Amino acid sequence: MIVGFFGLSGVGKTHLIKRLVSNTDEFIQISASKLIKSEGGVIQFENLNRRVLLDNQNKLVSSIQKLKSEKKNYLIEMHTILETKNYIFTVPDIILNQLRDVLDLAFFLQASPQFIRHNRLMDSKTRAIKTDLELAEAQELSLFLFKKSFPECQFLVIDHSFDMHQLQLSISNLR
């Protein structure tokens, strides 16, 4: 089973998935960037341009298709938009549709812009610096693309008051 966790950079995907895998050995945590890197993709923030980002998304689909054949359970941190220093790259519909076809379940994680901004400032990763309004708009776009691309997929919009036990049950019930 492959489960995708979507949301803005800094929303808490890594933290949430770490909490999920800490309670079980049934799942393996992995990020989209690690999968892209394993396929020879460029992930350094300062080297991201539209051509590289599109190529990376194709590499991500290819990598997840390979994971699917392994018959293991993966929880993957993913995005519908990617923020660079100068612009927001929206993952093309064709890529999101391919991801929809290989994922068994998808979740969208959202949080307040203040929470996201705080996480970004506290993290060592290089990320785009945005105002609360810009983060709110980016999150709205990301959620719109998620809902558009995964209309048939079971999904939950998760906020930070979400019941972790309920999430574990949702994932377990699909296996």
Helical amount: 40-55%
Write the CATH architecture name: 3-Layer(aba) Sandwich
Note the gap between the termini: 7 Å
- Low-pLDDT ranges: none
How many strands, what sense, and barrel or not for the largest sheet? Answer: 5 strands, parallel
**Overall outline:** globular
Query: How many structural domains can be distinguished in the coordinates?
Result: 1
* CATH topology description: Rossmann fold
Number of strands: 7
> What are the secondary-structure elements, in order, as H or E?
EHEHHEEEHEHHEH
Radius of gyration: 15 Å
Q: What is the CATH class?
A: Alpha Beta
Mean pLDDT: 85
Give the structural class.
alpha/beta
What is the number of helices?
Answer: 7
> What proportion strand?
15-25%
Q: Strand order, biggest sheet?
A: 2-3-1-6-7
CATH superfamily: P-loop containing nucleotide triphosphate hydrolases
Pfam families: AAA_17
InterPro entries: P-loop_NTPase
GO molecular function, one term: kinase activity
Organism: Thorsellia anophelis DSM 18579
Topology of this protein?
Blueprint: E1 2-6, H1 13-22, E2 28-31, H2 32-38, H3 50-70, E3 74-78, E4 81-83, E5 88-90, H4 93-102, E6 105-109, H5 113-122, H6 132-149, E7 157-158, H7 164-172
Helix pairs in contact: 2-3, 3-4, 5-6
